[in-house]
Design brief:
The structure holds 2 protein chains of 2 kinds. In chain A, 68% of the residues lie in helices and 0% in strands. Chain A is mostly helical. Chain B is globular and about 65 Å long. Chain B starts with a helix and ends in a 13-residue tail after the last strand. The chains are: A mainly alpha, B alpha/beta.
């Protein structure tokens, strides 16, 4: 080839993730979600600084104080504990639950979905039938059964939520692996001597990230909601842990006399779940594989 | 060929790099057994370029995939045959040893440079990965080698381009990257190029072919070039094997094949080729009438019989044995074209 012939490189386009970030900043709902999540995350990280009181400290003389009285911004609960501090610490727990249980289900579902989609055949059939069986149970029932077997505690609630959310990740990842594994670049890499495991995890998995991220973001919101539900039923966090669902459960008899003890933790749950759902929906629009390229 | 060693070996007729004996590959589909490759014999010498030509669906790519053992199984089945690479039968090699051959001694480049690169990694990383896999290099060192290779395949500003993602490169550049990946080994023996220029526009095609030729000589590797473009064959190949419906119908050195084609199908292929007319009365392009037979219902006769102008009764009944025409020229036809161009 003559060296004077040079192909003209097209101008460098921004990368996929950079472009996605730009799209995200233009999506108002998603940005609102992101801001809510960032707000909760900051408060959770700096809980000891943000909380005005110790969330466990009881001041019996000040029980069921209304919001904005005696220096309690959000009032106190039936044992005289500062509600604001408890909600702040509760955020910490809820975010951890959300992230850890999604982490569990992503890992399990990811490996199963990847194996099912990549190997196909009987591996696929066995894994997907098990997944189908799990999906046949109502989600919350499955979670309750698993907690009942493991015993009620916050850790077990995370495991239970992780396991019962797993099927949907397995399905999402299997579906994208099925389409990705037929791509030419997989064959090309195989022809370069790449082994099965490396093809699965290093070549194909990164290409299935976009739909998985959407599912995971929505999943965090749902996990927070489920853990609140489990705690409300007494199967999750145990008193005196400042967990939002547990806070609602343990003060529900005061709903007529002191609205704030039930309403405010409920609002916190609402906001956090809303944040993740808004972001997830926005990401779905942005990362939709059909809109790629 | 600049390499004296290569000239000697090819002159003496030894120095076989790849030998395929009696290879048959079938696909077991719901509609029946598709015999994609039947009793194929092929030989590539060290440093030689063999062009494998034929229409779509004649078994060219299946042959290439069989050599690298990338035929999807199931539904693919290698029914019989031996593929010798430097004396070892690839078909009986354990998968692990086969994997270490792929990408180091035998590498492949594909038709579609647009989709043959992983969209989520930079091209430098992808080339470096081959060094990490086969030579156990560290990431940094491997990346530096990748940049060197990008320079070798004449990509301008390789250090910067190595950090580009595939979608940021043009088709020709991507095919160069694919070639660089295929070269990412200390001693490449055979490169299989499966229609490397089909998806590229004509000016880029010429550049890529020239690059392949230069690299082949520089590195001293052999090239199995799969194509249906006789122009590409004339430009690059040392030998040509013509395939039709899973069978090899003719095999000859390139000058011999162009000057003295014996099989009617080869003649047909050559007739399809558009060449710039030297005088005003341009020749009309001829086409081969009919289409490739259904590989599911192929009988014992010559598969080309129903499209052949020279068809005889025996063509319907049996597939002809190998005939030779001079040194190193084989064909399989009951009623071949004679040297004068007329049928006997």
């Amino acid at each position: 080839m003559s060296d004077n012939i040079k192909e003209i490189a097209p101008p460098a386009e921004p990368g996929f993730w950079k472009e996605s970030w730009y799209q995200l900043t233009r999506n108002r709902a998603a940005m609102a979600g992101l801001i809510i999540i960032a707000f909760f995350a900051l408060i959770a990280i700096f809980a000891p600084l943000a909380a005005p009181e110790d969330p466990l400290e009881q001041t019996i003389s000040a029980r069921l104080t209304a919001p904005f009285t005696d220096g309690y911004i959000l009032g106190t609960d039936d044992l005289g504990r500062d509600l604001l501090s408890r909600i702040i610490y509760g955020g910490r727990i809820s975010l951890i639950i959300g992230v850890v249980s999604v982490g569990i289900s992503l890992t399990l579902g990811g490996v199963l979905g990847l194996a099912a989609g990549y190997f196909g055949g009987w591996v696929d059939r066995i894994i997907m039938r098990v997944i189908d069986i799990m999906l046949a149970f109502p989600y919350i029932l499955l979670t309750i059964v698993i907690v009942a077997i493991l015993g009620p505690s916050l850790t077990n609630a995370m495991v239970a939520i992780g396991i019962s959310q797993m099927p949907r990740y397995a399905r999402v990842i299997r579906a994208s692996v099925l389409s990705e594994r037929e791509q030419d670049y997989v064959l090309a890499e195989r022809s370069l001597g790449t082994g099965n495991l490396e093809l699965m995890f290093r070549t194909i998995l990164p290409n299935t990230l976009a739909p998985t991220i959407v599912q995971a973001t929505l999943g965090v919101g749902e996990a927070i909601l489920s853990s609140a539900g489990l705690s409300f039923l007494g199967l999750g966090a145990q008193p005196p842990t400042p967990e939002w669902g547990l806070m609602i459960a343990s003060s529900k008899q005061f709903i007529t006399s002191a609205w704030w003890v039930v309403t405010l933790p409920g609002l916190a749950i609402l906001l956090a779940v809303l944040g993740f759902n808004l972001l997830g929906d926005g990401l779905r629009d942005i990362l939709d594989p059909r809109l790629r390229d | 060929m600049t390499d004296t060693a290569t000239i000697e070996t090819s002159a003496t007729g030894t120095g076989e790099l790849l030998g395929i004996d009696n290879l048959s590959v079938s696909f077991h589909t719901r509609r029946g057994v598709v015999k994609a490759v039947r009793n194929l014999n092929l030989k590539i010498r060290e440093g030689e370029t063999l062009a494998l030509v034929g229409e779509s669906g004649c078994g060219k790519s299946v042959t290439a995939h069989a050599i690298t053992r990338l035929v999807p199984m199931p539904p693919g089945v290698i029914e019989s045959g031996i593929i010798r690479f430097r004396g070892t039968n690839l078909l009986s090699l354990p998968e692990k040893e086969m994997r270490s051959l792929r990408g180091s001694k035998i590498s492949m480049i594909f038709q579609e440079p647009m989709t043959s690169l992983n969209p989520v990694f930079t091209v430098g990383t992808q080339i470096a990965e081959v060094f990490v896999t086969h030579e156990k290099l560290g990431r940094k060192e491997a990346f530096a080698r990748a940049v060197e290779l990008l320079d070798l395949v004449k990509i301008p500003d390789p250090a910067k381009r190595a950090k580009s993602y595939p979608h940021q490169l043009s088709g020709g550049m991507r095919q160069r990257v694919m070639i660089a990946m295929a070269l990412a080994s200390p001693e490449p023996g055979l490169m299989i190029a499966d229609e490397p220029t089909t998806a590229l526009d004509v000016t880029i095609q010429a550049q890529i072919l020239q690059l392949l030729n230069e690299l082949k000589k520089g590195v001293g590797m052999a090239l199995l070039l799969i194509t249906h473009d006789m122009g590409v064959v004339a430009e690059t190949a040392d030998r040509v094997a013509v395939m039709y419906a899973g069978r090899k119908v003719e095999d000859a050195p390139v000058e011999e094949l162009f000057a003295n084609p014996r099989h009617p199908y080869t003649v047909g292929l050559l007739g399809c080729q558009c060449s710039a007319p030297s005088n005003r009365n341009a020749v009309r392009l001829t086409s081969i009438s009919g289409s490739v037979p259904d590989l599911l219902t192929l009988g014992d006769g010559c598969p080309f019989a129903n499209r052949c102008g020279n068809v005889k009764n025996e063509c319907m009944e049996s597939f002809p044995d190998v005939s030779t025409a001079g040194e190193d020229h084989e064909f399989r036809c009951h009623n071949p074209i004679t040297e004068s161009g007329a049928s006997s």
